[in-house]
Write a structure and sequence with these properties.
With 181 residues, this protein is mostly helical. Helices cover 67% and strands 0% of the residues. The longest helix has 19 residues, at 12-30. The relative contact order is 0.11.
Length: 181
């Protein structure tokens, strides 16, 4: 079952979603991830388990929904005055956030859900802001797919599958590669 789209902002559905999301975040802070259950979440959120199952289908979809909500940035990427500087600031923040335990768990939740394409949309929107900011004065801008493939993909791969995430030096090498430098 997919997450329902088109919910009225501020309506009962929005209040239920916020309550359930808050309960998930609180429970994940207080308990081992493997011990968190839908009935625990429902009790903490003040809803019935059937409300959660009806809306999200199962625990993995709910965890992915919460993870995606946390991945949505509150602000635009930093404006350093240069394309490379903006990409570096954004990529360093992304590396730092995603290499934390919380970030790793968010990526795993999203990876195991049907909503994983949303990550590309979220990251792409952030990169689009950076590229648009420099469109008028940078002769040849990389496209978003190149930035995702050359900067983001190695970050995610190393966080999830290697012993250690990229170093800042390695991240800067990837940025240079993405920019054709």
């Amino acid at each position: 079952m997919a997450i329902k789209e088109g919910l009225r902002p501020g309506g009962r559905s929005a209040r239920v979603q916020e309550s359930v999301h808050r309960a998930v975040r609180e429970l994940l802070e207080a308990h081992e991830r493997s011990s968190v259950t839908v009935p625990m979440i429902a009790a903490c959120a003040g809803v019935t388990p059937s409300t959660i199952y009806r809306r999200w289908g199962d625990l993995s979809v709910l965890l992915a929904d919460v993870a995606l909500a946390r991945m949505r940035p509150d602000t635009e990427p930093a404006n350093t005055g240069s394309l490379r500087g903006d990409l570096q600031a954004w990529a360093e923040q992304y590396l730092d956030e995603m290499s934390s335990d919380v970030g790793r768990n968010m990526m795993r939740d999203v990876q195991s859900s049907p909503t994983k394409g949303t990550c590309v949309q979220i990251l792409g929107a952030q990169l689009r802001i950076i590229l648009e900011r420099h469109r008028a004065h940078v002769e040849q801008l990389p496209d978003i797919d190149r930035l995702l493939n050359v900067i983001v993909a190695p970050v995610v791969f190393r966080i999830l599958f290697a012993e250690a995430p990229l170093t800042l030096e390695q991240l800067n090498e990837q940025i240079d590669l993405a920019l054709g430098q």
